Amino acid sequence: MKSVNLLKDADVIILNEMDIGMARSDNQHTTRLMAYFLGMNYAWGLEFVELTPGTDEDRYNANGLEDFHGLHGNAFLTKCTISEPVIFRNQTGQYFSSEATNVNAGGKEKRLGGRMGMFGSITVDGKETVIGSVHKLDGFRQEVLEYIGQRDAIIAGDQGASFCKDVDLANIVSEDGGEEMHYTWPASCNSLGHHRGDNICSNMKMVGEEVTTMPCVTEYGFSTKIGDHALTSAVLTGDGHDGPFFALGSSAKDKV
Q1: What is the mean pLDDT of the segment spanning 195-204?
Q2: Is-cis flag, bond preceding 186, omega within 30?
Q3: Where residue 61 sits, what CATH number does that domain have?
Q4: Is the Cβ–Cβ distance between 172 and 200 less than 8 Å?
């Protein structure tokens, strides 16, 4: 679990593209494994049943192994107790198509399922706070607004910045260092990418600057990429909270 070193200080971790039983990620339940090492609670929601081994890079990472379960979803982890979980899900659409398209990696990612958002409630300093993981969710803006209600909220994922405004939240991104220092995709150990593909949405106050980090862990002088999206993080506080807490949003599919 190389990624644990990047995530160990967070109070809330929001993740996209987390596998269960995919050979490309060593056939692990990646979210449960991460939660175990961090000592956190978690919720994981199914997005796709993967019917193929994945992209060329995924197949290379599989080292000839077959998928045990072929499940792919979104998750959040927190040091708090999670309650009221709910998922809003899009229909299957082109992901299940046998034709090669730009949404199924040229036909190499045939999937049963649909893009979705998963939400839950935690209690911080006696006050309810909504946390959510969204991944290219289409529609359901009114449902998300109603779920949040009057509560504080932190929602993140591979989702356009317009989603934040649609659900009456602010896009938590700073201008520190210039716009390019907050790009998230396609990220590597050498670059943060070409655009801001991942966003944190919240109605809480940002303490300091939002930070974007390359998805890499360096050990013994060697860097290992743990995903193709950079990590975004922020320290947030809201009215009625005794102090700030650290939230991190990430999108990772490879070796977590």
Answers
A1: 95
A2: yes
A3: 3.60.10
A4: yes
- Length of the chain, in residues: 256
Residue 199: burial class (beta carbons within 10 Å; 0-12, 13-18, 19+): buried
Phi-psi domain of 5 (left: phi exceeds 0; alpha: psi -120 through 50; beta: other): alpha
Return the amino acid letter for 217. V
Assess if residue 256 is contained within a domain: no
* pLDDT at residue 252 in the model: 52
Q: Identify any residues that bridge with 225 across adjacent strands, giving them in sequence order.
A: 216
> For position 97, what pLDDT does the model report?
85
- Angle made by CA atoms 44, 133, 88, in degrees to the nearest 5: 80
Structural domain span for residue 35: 4-251
Pairwise CA distance, residues 134 & 137, whole Å: 6
The reply to whether 244 falls in a domain is yes
For residue range 54-80, what is the model confidence (pLDDT) as tens digits? Answer: 888 889 888 889 999 999 999 999 999
Q: Is 35 helix (H, G, I), strand (E, B) or coil?
A: helix
pLDDT band at 2 (very low <50, low <70, confident <90, very high): low
Q: Which of 48, 51, 61 is nearest to 19 (CA)?
A: 48
Is pLDDT of 169 > 60?
A: yes
Q: pLDDT confidence of 221, banded at 50, 70, 90?
A: confident
Name the residue among 248, 245, 253 with its Cα closest to residue 76: 248
Alpha helices, H only, the chain: 4-7, 30-38, 56-62, 141-148, 162-166
Which residues make Cβ contacts (< 8 Å) with residue 236, sequence separation at least 6?
A: 154, 172, 202, 204, 205, 206, 207, 244, 245, 246, 247
Contacts of 149 (CB under 8 A, 6+ apart): none
